[in-house]
Amino acid sequence: MTDLHFPPRELAVMSVLWRLGSATVADVRAHLDEDLAYTSVLSALQTLEKKGYVRPEPEGRAYRYFPTVAAEKAGRRAIGRIRDAIFQGSSERLFAQLVSDKRLSRAELERMRALLAERLGDEP
């Protein structure tokens, strides 16, 4: 599990599992934005299992799938790839892009400020 990368369909499936904590194929299918066949969702879950990103547990006649990798870990790796590929390795440029988003509320910006202050040791 060294190269943590999710193609779009696998990422959509993992997103459902992270949000719900665990899910059956039918659960995942019901929570996806895209209307996929049962077999397509099952295939994605089986691929994720082979990669070691999910583990199945029997539940009646079906299986319940659990993520074995945390969303935060996947996010760190994805952000690192974006930082390196798009922002030439500059975390400062990535951060500037994030905070320039006009859709961020004042409350979100204040929470970001608090995180920065904490990280810098400026918390009172």
Tell me what the structure shows.
- There is one protein chain.
- With 124 residues, the chain is mostly helical.
- Helix content is 60%, strand content 11%.
- The chain has 6 helices and 3 strands; from the N terminus they run H-E-H-H-E-E-H-H-H.
- It has helices spanning 8-20, 25-31, 38-51, 71-86, 91-99, 106-120; strands at 23-24, 54-59, 62-67.
- It has a 3-stranded antiparallel β-sheet with strand order 1-3-2.
- Strand 2 and strand 3 (62-67) form a beta hairpin.
- Helix 2 packs across helix 3 (38-51).
- The radius of gyration is 18 Å and the shape is elongated.
List the helices and strands and how they pair.
Blueprint: H1 8-20, E1 23-24, H2 25-31, H3 38-51, E2 54-59, E3 62-67, H4 71-86, H5 91-99, H6 106-120
Antiparallel strand pairs: 1-3, 2-3
Helix pairs in contact: 2-3
Features:
124 residues; mainly alpha
> From the helix content, strand content and strand pairing, which structural class follows?
mainly alpha
Mean of residue pLDDT values: 93
Beta strand count: 3
Distance between the termini: 40 Å
Percent of residues in beta strands: 5-15%
Order of helices and strands: HEHHEEHHH
- The portion of residues assigned to helices is 55-70%
The main β sheet shows up as:
3 strands, antiparallel
The general outline is elongated
Rg (C-alpha, Å)? 18 Å
- Provide the spatial order of strands within the biggest beta sheet: 1-3-2
Stretches where pLDDT falls below 50 for ≥5 residues? none
Number of helices: 6
